[in-house]
C-alpha cells in the first residue's frame, strides 16, 4: 500500500451533499455537513410543497406532494371542502387503521395531521404504476406488451400477494370489505399494494396483540366509514341480504370475484346496479368457463373461483391462506381442493410435474401400451356405439308406435259416422285429445278442431259440441270464437267462470297466432274457481306457438300468481341464460291435477329450469312439484317432517336440504332413493 493512500481528498464545494456523504468523511467535514442539514431542517416552514391533485373519491381527494423533510414525493389524502366535522372521525379512523397494518402488500401511512384549515389529512406511499383494473382493461384492449408482461402466472402472483395482505388483516381482526381491481396498485417492478381501507370493519378478535391501537375500544366494532357500502359484483350475498352478517368469508368472496376478473377480464356480473344486486342476492353466478368459452381458463382455477364465490358462507374457503394454498397447488401442478378429481386427472397432473421422468418411462412402455390401448379403445368404442344404436332403435320404435297409435286414432275419428250419437263421437275425440295433447299440443288441437267442425256440419244442435269447442278455442287463444260457442250452448251457466273471463275481453278479435300478452293477462286475472286448472295446458300451447320467450315468461308469472291467488308476484327471479329460478314466498301451488287427464300439469313446466331454489315456504307439498325435470332442487331452510308423499320423486337429480330440519326417517328414505343423488348441509 502506498504511503499517501490514507490522505484525505476534499470534495468539491459545489456537490449537493446527501446523507450518504457523511460516511468515510473527515470528522470536521462530517460535522460541517450535519450542521448544514440541521439548518436546512430548521428553515423548513412548510413541510409539503408542489401539491397537485391526482385523484378524487367520494369524500376525499388525493394529491401528489413533495415532503421536504424526507426529500421524496408522497400521496396526500385530504377531506373534500364540503365535508363537515362529522366526517373527521371516520377519516382519521381509516388513516389510523391503515397505519397499524404492517405488511409489504398494504399501503403504508407516513403522517397523520391537521392542515392550516384545521381539516385532517394523512400521507402515504405515492402509488406508481397501474391499478389492477387498468391492467385488466389494457389486456382486454390488446395493448402491446401487456399480454407478455402479465401472463397467467404473473396475474396469479399478483393475486397471491393480495390474498396474503387480506390474510394478514384478518389475523388482526380487520375486514377490508371493498376488494376489487380498482383498489389494487401494481408497480412496474412487481410491487403490489392493497389500498383504500375506507370501508374496513374491525371484528374484535385479532390473533396478534401487537397493535394496541386496535384495543381500548378504539374502533368499538363499528364500520370505519359509517354505513358499509361496497362494489356491486364484488360484494358477497350476505352483504346484500343481511348487512350484519359479514365475516372473513365476505372478503374471500371478493377475492374469488377478483380472480374471476383476472381470468375473464370481466366483472362477475354485468348490468345495472339493481340487476347485479338481485343476481348476487340469490347466488346466480355464471362460471368463468361458461361465461368466456373462447378463453383458455383452467378447470382448476374455474373451480377455485366458484368455491370462493359460493352462495353459502360455509361452502367457501375458511381462510385466505386456504385460497392461496389452492392457487399454489395449481401453479405447482397439483389438484386443488375445489375441483372434483379422478385418477386420470391425478395422472395428468403427475405427468406435468414430472415430464422428464415420464417421457423416459412412457417411451419404454409405449410399444406395449399402444397395442393394448388400441384394443381397449376399439372394444370400448364398439360397446358405446352398440349402446347408442340400441338407444336410437328403442327411441325410434317408441316413436313409431306412438305415431301408429296416433294415426289409427285419427283415422278412427275420420271414419266415425256423422249420423252417430254426437255424445259418443265427442267422447272419442276427447279421449284422443287427453292422450295426445301433452306430447303435441298444437297438432292435437288442430286435429280436434277439424273433427269438431265435421260434426258441426252434420249436427249443429249438439250442446256438448259448443261447450267442447269453446274450451278448444280458449286454449287456441281464439277468445272471441270461444265466447261465441259458449253463448250457443250452456257455457254461460256450466262454465260461468270462463264465460265471465272471456266476456271481460269481448272486444278482442282473434287474427290467428298467439294473442297479445296484455289481453291474455287481463282475461286470466278474471278467472275464478276450478276453471283455472286448465291454465297449465294453456301455457303448453302458448309455448308451442309463441316465439317471443320473454313474453311467455310474463305469461307464466301471471298464471303462477293467479293459481296462488296473489295480485302481485314477488320473490320470483328467473335467469333464462343459466336456467336458474329462485322463488321466495309462501307459494304452495306449483301444479294442477286434472282428473280427466289423470296427471299433474306443472305451472312452471314450460320454462327450461335446471336449478330451482325455494325459500320461505314452510307448507310446501312435494307432490305439487311433480312434472318438473330439474338437475338441482334446493329447499334448504324448509322443515321436512311429513310422510313420504312429500318427497318430490322423479323431479330432480340432486336435492339439497337442511339436515337439522329434516326428520331422520325421511333422511333415510332420501338416502335410499337410488334415482336421486342427495346433498345435505
Tags for this entry?
Serine Threonine Protein Phosphatase 5, Tetratricopeptide repeat; single chain; alpha+beta; 681 residues; 18 strands; six-stranded mixed beta sheet; elongated; five-stranded antiparallel beta sheet
Write the layout of secondary structure elements.
Elements: H1 27-42, E1 48-56, E2 60-67, E3 72-79, H2 88-99, E4 109-114, E5 120-124, E6 130-131, H3 132-141, H4 146-149, H5 152-171, E7 174-175, E8 184-186, E9 192-194, E10 201-202, H6 237-241, H7 248-264, H8 273-281, H9 288-291, H10 299-308, H11 320-332, H12 343-353, H13 355-415, H14 422-436, H15 441-458, H16 463-475, H17 479-488, H18 491-494, H19 496-503, H20 517-524, H21 535-545, H22 549-563, E11 572-575, E12 580-584, E13 591-594, E14 599-602, E15 611-615, E16 630-634, E17 652-657, H23 664-672, E18 677-680
Describe the structure.
Helix 10 (299-308) runs antiparallel to helix 11. The protein contains 23 helices and 18 strands. The protein has a 6-stranded mixed beta sheet, with no helix packed on it. A 5-stranded antiparallel beta sheet has the order 1-2-3-5-4, with helices on one face. Strands 6-8-9 form a 3-stranded antiparallel beta sheet. The chain folds into 4 domains: 3-42; 128-338, Transferase(Phosphotransferase), domain 1 (Orthogonal Bundle), CATH 1.10.510.10; 416-564, Alpha Horseshoe (Serine Threonine Protein Phosphatase 5, Tetratricopeptide repeat); 570-681. With 681 residues, it is α+β, with helices and mostly antiparallel strands. Helices cover 44% and strands 12% of the residues. A hairpin with a 3-residue loop joins strand 1 and strand 2.
Amino acid at each position: 500500500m502506498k504511503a499517501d493512500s490514507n490522505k484525505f481528498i476534499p470534495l468539491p464545494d459545489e456537490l449537493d451533499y446527501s446523507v450518504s456523504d457523511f460516511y468515510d468523511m473527515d470528522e470536521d467535514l462530517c460535522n460541517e455537513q450535519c450542521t448544514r442539514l440541521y439548518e436546512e431542517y430548521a428553515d423548513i416552514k412548510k413541510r409539503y410543497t408542489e401539491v397537485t391533485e391526482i385523484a378524487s373519491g367520494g369524500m376525499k381527494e388525493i394529491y401528489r406532494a413533495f415532503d421536504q423533510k424526507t426529500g421524496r414525493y408522497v400521496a396526500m389524502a385530504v377531506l373534500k371542502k364540503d365535508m363537515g366535522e362529522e366526517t373527521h372521525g371516520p377519516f382519521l379512523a381509516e388513516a389510523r387503521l391503515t397505519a397499524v397494518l404492517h405488511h409489504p402488500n398494504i399501503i403504508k401511512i407516513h403522517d397523520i395531521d391537521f392542515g392550516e384549515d384545521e381539516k385532517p389529512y394523512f400521507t402515504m406511499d405515492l402509488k406508481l404504476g397501474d391499478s389492477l383494473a387498468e391492467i385488466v382493461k389494457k389486456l382486454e384492449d390488446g395493448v402491446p406488451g401487456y399480454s407478455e408482461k402479465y401472463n397467467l402466472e404473473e396475474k396469479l402472483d399478483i393475486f397471491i400477494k393480495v390474498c396474503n395482505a387480506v390474510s394478514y388483516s384478518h389475523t388482526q381482526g380487520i375486514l377490508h370489505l371493498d376488494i376489487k381491481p380498482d383498489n389494487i396498485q401494481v408497480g412496474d417492478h412487481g410491487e403490489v399494494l392493497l389500498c383504500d381501507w375506507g370501508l374496513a370493519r374491525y371484528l374484535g378478535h385479532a390473533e396478534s396483540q401487537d397493535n394496541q391501537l386496535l384495543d381500548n375500544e378504539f374502533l368499538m366494532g363499528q364500520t370505519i366509514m359509517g354505513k358499509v357500502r361496497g362494489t356491486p359484483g364484488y360484494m358477497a350475498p350476505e352483504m346484500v341480504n343481511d348487512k350484519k352478517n359479514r365475516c372473513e368469508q365476505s372478503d374471500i368472496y371478493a377475492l374469488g370475484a377478483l380472480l374471476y376478473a383476472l381470468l375473464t377480464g370481466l366483472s362477475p356480473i354485468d348490468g345495472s346496479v339493481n340487476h347485479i344486486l338481485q343476481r348476487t342476492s340469490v347466488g346466480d353466478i355464471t362460471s368463468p368457463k361458461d361465461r368466456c368459452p373462447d378463453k383458455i381458463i383452467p378447470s382448476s382455477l374455474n373451480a377455485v373461483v366458484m368455491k370462493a364465490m359460493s352462495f353459502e358462507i360455509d361452502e367457501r374457503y375458511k381462510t385466505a391462506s386456504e385460497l392461496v394454498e389452492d392457487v399454489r397447488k395449481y401453479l405447482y401442478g397439483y389438484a386443488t381442493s375445489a375441483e372434483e378429481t379422478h385418477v386420470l386427472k391425478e395422472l395428468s397432473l403427475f405427468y406435468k410435474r414430472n415430464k422428464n421422468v415420464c417421457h423416459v418411462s412412457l417411451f419404454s412402455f409405449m410399444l406395449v401400451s399402444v397395442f393394448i390401448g388400441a384394443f381397449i379403445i376399439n372394444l370400448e368404442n364398439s360397446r358405446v356405439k352398440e349402446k347408442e344404436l340400441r338407444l336410437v332403435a328403442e327411441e325410434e320404435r317408441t316413436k313409431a308406435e306412438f305415431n301408429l297409435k296416433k294415426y289409427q286414432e285419427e283415422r278412427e275419428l275420420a271414419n266415425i259416422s256423422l249420423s252417430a250419437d254426437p255424445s259418443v263421437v265427442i267422447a272419442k275425440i276427447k279421449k284422443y285429445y287427453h292422450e295426445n295433447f301433452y306430447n303435441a299440443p298444437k297438432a292435437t288441437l288442430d286435429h280436434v278442431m277439424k273433427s269438431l267442425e265435421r260434426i258441426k256440419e252434420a249436427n249443429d244442435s249438439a250442446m256438448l259440441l259448443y261447450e267442447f269447442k269453446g274450451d278448444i278455442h280458449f286454449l287456441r287463444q281464439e277468445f272471441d270464437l270461444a265466447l261465441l260457442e259458449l253463448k250457443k250452448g250452456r257455457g254461460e251457466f256450466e262454465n260461468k267462470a270462463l264465460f265471465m273471463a272471456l266476456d271481460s275481453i269481448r272486444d278482442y278479435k282473434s287474427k290467428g297466432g298467439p294473442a297479445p300478452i296484455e289481453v291474455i293477462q287481463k282475461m286470466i286475472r278474471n278467472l275464478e274457481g276450478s276453471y283455472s286448472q286448465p291454465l297449465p295446458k294453456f301455457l303448453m300451447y302458448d309455448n308451442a306457438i309463441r316465439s317471443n320467450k320473454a313474453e311467455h315468461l310474463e305469461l307464466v308469472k301471471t298464471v303462477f300468481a293467479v293459481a296462488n291467488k296473489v295480485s302481485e308476484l314477488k320473490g320470483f327471479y328467473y335467469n333464462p341464460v343459466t336456467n336458474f329460478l329462485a322463488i321466495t314466498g309462501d307459494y304452495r301451488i306449483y301444479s294442477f291435477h286434472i282428473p280427466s287427464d289423470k296427471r299433474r300439469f306443472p305451472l312452471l313446466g314450460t320454462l327450461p329450469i335446471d336449478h330451482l331454489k325455494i325459500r320461505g315456504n314452510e307448507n310446501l307439498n312435494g307432490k305439487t312439484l311433480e312434472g318438473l325435470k330439474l338437475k338441482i332442487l334446493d329447499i334448504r331452510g324448509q322443515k321436512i317432517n311429513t310422510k313420504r308423499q312429500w318427497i318430490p320423486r322423479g323431479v330432480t337429480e340432486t336435492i339439497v336440504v337442511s339436515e337439522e330440519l329434516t326428520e331422520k326417517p325421511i333422511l333415510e328414505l332420501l338416502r335410499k332413493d337410488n334415482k336421486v343423488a342427495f346433498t345435505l348441509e
